[in-house]
Amino acid sequence: MGFHTELAIRPAKRPDPMREIRRLKSIECGIEAAKHFALGEGYRNLNHGSFGTYPTAIRDVLRHYQEAAEERPDKFIRYEYPKLLDESRELVANLLNAPTDTIVLVPNATSAFNTVVRNLVFKPDDVIVYYGTIYGACEKTLDYLSEITPVEAHRISITYPVTDDDVCSALEDKIRSLRNDGKNVRLAIFDTIVALPGVRMPFERLTDLCHKLGVSSCIDAAHSIGQIEVNLETLNPDYYFSNCHKWLHVPRGCCVLYVPKRNQSLMRSTLPTSHYFIAVSQEGKLALINPLPPSANSDFVLNFEFVGTIDSSPYLCIPSAIEWRSKLVWNGLQGEQAILGYIHGLAREGGAKVAQMLGTEVLDNTDKTLQNCAFSNVALPLSWNDVVGGDSKKAVKVAQWIARVLAEEYDTFIAIIFFGERFWMRISAQVYLTIEDFEWGGKVLAEVCERVKKREWDD
């Protein structure tokens, strides 16, 4: 049989994927908002911060783009996707108050961090400084860099609760001490909000301190966008990255990476290296065919536009997530202000309630700044000495046992941490939760802690 010779029929235009979201009326934070999520019946998601989740309306948008890519792969990936990606970059740049050409998207914060530190060229006596509360995978990356490059990684030890002044002084003292030893401090790494325990760092002051001392700042803001306000124009860090899939209600995985123009020439390659990488010298090399159409974007932006074939549909869901969030209301507020007001207030009220139920305390410092976010950390009514005889390894085993029991027997999850010779829990506030969910969590934790005292964890 021969090929069809009839004129091709132009495909019908796909419907606007955000149509249903735009039609939504105001959504009250709490019980009403919970109806918009696909959490399993009976499941209480008290650990939103680890992996995030997103409304069903945004799930429909995700599937819309996935289907578009399957229906006409080349047409969508080569020609439609870049335009949609630019729209997402522009909207997220507006949210962070940053120029669009300083914003690119990568799968997650770990990828963003690796992109930054693996692009920097280190010399003997170069040093990276970081706090002991750094995310584990990031510290492992520094360990690896120390093996394959001349750079040294120096940890700053802090144990919460500490004041913001103490945190800032620790960084300044470490930098000055290293310089006195003849070291060149290239980069300082710190969080906006520490993952474990979930506490806010004085990242604005730390960034200013880096400017003052002439050290590049790398801000791990994995828990930032959608949880706290950030103005990158005012903050002016050297590198900043934040997961959109944690608190901005974007599907996994999607992370914004900000690099100001002054540093973009240093970020020469993506991970892995993309089609748009520009080698220092092309002498003697044949020109390679780029599979993507021409673009007017900068070399930096183009480098990240198409790194390799993955499902990049989550990147295209940023506009729908921002639109959905604009529908949220609480206490006379709407949109981002309503969301931040609700989750911050719920974290404080809920944390205090759980601490009261357990007869313990909430983790905070004398400045009362650690809780300026949507996390709350509450001490568990367990004595380190009584439960494990002061054995740190057994304490970690107890923490892991509690977490597993919560997931397998109580249909929930709460991050359990052991530090400062105490057991703590980290609980997340979110628009689909209420104070009743925190009270339920407190009751469950009290029950599980009694089981720990009976040494069920040691069976």
UniProtKB/TrEMBL annotation:
<feature type="domain" description="Aminotransferase class V">
    <location>
        <begin position="80"/>
        <end position="284"/>
    </location>
</feature>
<dbReference type="Pfam" id="PF00266">
    <property type="entry name" value="Aminotran_5"/>
</dbReference>
<dbReference type="InterPro" id="IPR015424">
    <property type="entry name" value="PyrdxlP-dep_Trfase"/>
</dbReference>
<protein>
    <recommendedName>
        <fullName>Aminotransferase class V domain-containing protein</fullName>
    </recommendedName>
</protein>
<keyword id="KW-0663">Pyridoxal phosphate</keyword>
<dbReference type="InterPro" id="IPR000192">
    <property type="entry name" value="Aminotrans_V_dom"/>
</dbReference>
<dbReference type="InterPro" id="IPR015421">
    <property type="entry name" value="PyrdxlP-dep_Trfase_major"/>
</dbReference>
